Amino acid sequence: MAGRLDRLASAALMTTLLAATAAAADTAPLLTLKFTPQEGTHASSPDIPPALLSTPLAVVFEDDRQGVDPKVVGEVVEDEKSDPVRAANDVAAFTKDVLLRVAGEWGLKVVPGSPRVLKVRCIRFFVTQNHKTIGAMFASEARFVFNLAERGRVLWEGTVSGSAHRYGKRNEENLNEVLSDALKEAYANGISDPSLVAAMSSGGRGAGRGAGGGAGSAAASPPARAEGITPAQLLTELVDLKKQGFTTDLLVQYVNQKTLSAEMSGKDMAEWKQSGMPPAVIKAALARSPGAKQP
């Protein structure tokens, strides 16, 4: 009899714990996703050649964030504790709608069923809110894999990203602003990527390295490796990290994890230097260029 009572008590305790866990999840911060980019401080609009604006393009979107609850889009960190931020609306539908919206604003001719297809896979969409004594620090990142294909033939594939940081009040508005800024920047970086533009212009032909061209020249851009990143995109990430106080050694290690989709040009090197990148970081980036010998 006593053993049966113990089992019943244990079962009741487990039920209570499960209910408490579910209640905690239900009370996690809910964020209604809204596209509210801050044009004045984080404007992003790609430079698209006029010839491409009339080319029909089908867009396919896929949510491919691995190892996370599809509703989780961030975390609130305070006193060494972290609580998830859950989206009240569908994350995949929201990020897809934003892509179609900005593509239309930028003049791209999105036509479902077109032979040329841009597949966009979302691999990260996340914001971290760190509470401070005064206000809060918001940091967001959006990362996607762009795959351009025509009738089943892959013309170009690469990873694009955007990020944003801001201090402000602890509210939903700031969360949406930094997420929107990162999202718009990622899409702008992807659509204006020189290698993607070259592939769209030539159908995958002639996008190899040309004589006398720099990293900013579409005709001279080499084919991007999968998971590649342009020097300009990498510089944006490094500037953000440097502002947060990361040391040169850590920045170098970060660069060593990347693969550039275009070679570092003289203009790129000058921009990196003007942005305050240490020589060791620039040297590491040069070693990650497509033509460099990897260790």
Label this structure with key terms:
globular; 10 helices; about 300 residues
Q: What do these coordinates show?
A:
The chain has 295 residues and is α/β, with parallel strands linked by helices. Helices cover 40% and strands 23% of the residues. It contains ten helices and seven strands. The chain has helices at residues 2-26, 39-42, 50-53, 91-105, 172-191, 194-202, 231-243, 248-256, 266-274, 279-287; strands spanning 30-31, 58-63, 72-78, 81-87, 116-131, 136-150, 153-168. Strands 1, 2, 3, 4, 5, 6 and 7 form a seven-stranded mixed sheet that branches. Helix 7 (231-243) packs antiparallel against helix 8 and helix 8 (248-256) runs parallel beside helix 10. The chain is globular. The termini are far apart. Residues 17-27 and 204-226 have low confidence and may be disordered.
Rg, Cα atoms, Å: 22 Å
Give me the number of helical elements. Answer: 10
- In whole angstroms, the N-to-C terminal distance is 70 Å
Principal-axis shape: globular
Instruction: Give, in order, the helices and strands.
Output: HEHHEEEHEEEHHHHHH
Percent of residues in helices: 25-40%
Task: Determine the mean pLDDT.
Answer: 77
Strand portion: 15-25%
What is the β-strand count?
A: 7
Uncertain parts: 17-27, 204-226
Largest sheet: 7 strands, mixed
What structural class do the secondary elements suggest?
Answer: alpha/beta
